[in-house]
UniProtKB/TrEMBL annotation:
A UniProt-annotated Pfam family: Pyr_redox_2
Name the record gives this protein: Pyridine nucleotide-disulfide oxidoreductase
Lineage: superkingdom: Bacteria
Keywords: FAD, Flavoprotein, Oxidoreductase
Organism of provenance: Corynebacterium glutamicum
Co-factor requirement: FAD
Domain FAD/NAD(P)-binding: 3-286
Family annotation (PANTHER family): APOPTOSIS-INDUCING FACTOR 1, RIESKE DOMAIN-CONTAINING PROTEIN-RELATED
GO cellular component, one term: cytoplasm
InterPro entries assigned: FAD-oxidoreductase/Apoptosis (IPR050446), FAD/NAD-bd_sf (IPR036188), FAD/NAD-binding_dom (IPR023753), FAD/NAD-linked_Rdtase_dimer_sf (IPR016156)
Amino acid sequence: MREIVIVGHGIAGLTAKDTLRRQGFDGHITIIGNDLHPPYSRPALSKAALSPTMDLSDTTLPPSSSLATQISETVVGLNTDSQFVTVASGDQYFYDGLVIANGTHARRFTDHEEEYTLRTRDDAQKLRARLQEQPAIIVVGGGPLGMEIASGATSLGCDVTLVHQGLPMCAQVGPVIAGFLAQKAVENGVKIVDALASSVTRSSAEQFTVELDNGREIYAPVVASAIGDSPNIQWLQDSDLLTDGKLVTDSRGRVTDNIVAAGDIACFNGIRTPIWTSAIEQAKTAAGGLLLGNEAPELSFQSYFWTDQFGVNVKVSGPIPHNGTPHIIEGSLESGSALLHWSESNSAASINYRIPVPRLHKLAKSLAPTA
């Protein structure tokens, strides 16, 4: 294997490139991506873009020292027989090994420019510029991204309505922390509507109509959709790599003997986990799987993610604590600073208590039940 092509220069693609070099690959690496900005942290976008005190340059990642040829193009096709990738200009790039890590795109209701999504740095720039005009905005979706957009919009002086069926953030952090965050959202002026958005249409030149599943309609000039993502698999439709429309890998990231996948696009070991830390660990594993095959270690890591919203910082380590009452290790929810642990799932979470990530992982491990 002397020629490796990496499709995607987000964190999964960059991590795969660096891991290949660290593991001794001294051949040629070509990394292809269509984002013209220097590599940046996607999770930081919703914090920096909508904060009055932060700049988007704060999201830029440190430069990598590992060598690769960078191609700024959109990949449009793959021929697994001849082993080449085709880009929009018509150029083709041969590979011995291929890493697929070109992520996802945001789902949306319309193509109207006043419906905003937040996946790229350009998205963040556009949303920030519009919200600085302080329009009324409807945020559809109450996961981490939707709540962070709602938080940023309120800090910029917007009138914010958030539409989400059930308790926002509950699927990500469980009912205890989700209830705490929802209370903070309401205290900051967010109107939470417990419903499913059936449709979003641009009903006039001035506003959107958001139709809810209970028959109610609400209106605003701006909509931000945070309703999930779809893998960027269009260029793979004519390949033989998809299984029921999904890019499925084994536990080492392998799709075939010389093709691996990682990050948001991949159903890694059959499961898609669109989390920043997961993309990093998947890319490390997939790079090993490409070079070493069955000799490479399988994916094994402890999940971790964080969110900043309404003045509250939340970090979660370990399996998502859907249910159960946590043990309060330090502080209290009432004070807004607490360290929590769920013994049944061995998960730990901190709220507005800025402890280093390694300590959080160590704590979760130390509290694990023993046989």
